[in-house]
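Before drawing any conclusions, I looked closely at one protein, both as residues and as discrete backbone shape codes, quoted below without any editing:
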Amino acid sequence: MKSLFEQIGSTHTQQGDYYLPDLKLPPEEERPVGVWGQRRLRYLREHRPILYTNLKTSGQLRSHLADIEKQANALFLRLVKDYAAFEDVTEQLKAEQPMEWVRRMNGIKARVTEAINSQLVLV
């Protein structure tokens, strides 16, 4: 008589007195994951372990991280451009006062990074 695992086409391995199913995770799509995706991954592992496990076991983790990466990059570029325009950080300022331009752009990038982390990555 076949075991339940054999009936459904699965295999198993004997470990001592027990037969354990040979489980494999579904293949995941290979998509690039950058800094925003890595931050999201760390957040999921530390603060949302159930969601992390569900994404991992369903084969959707890399896709999820790549989507977050794409959204965060687009939002970052757009917000930096909008903040710079609103605060009058222009190419003329860059040419006339490069250190002031760097200081102001660094402030803008820090605020945008914090906004993206709180609204997209760490939720």
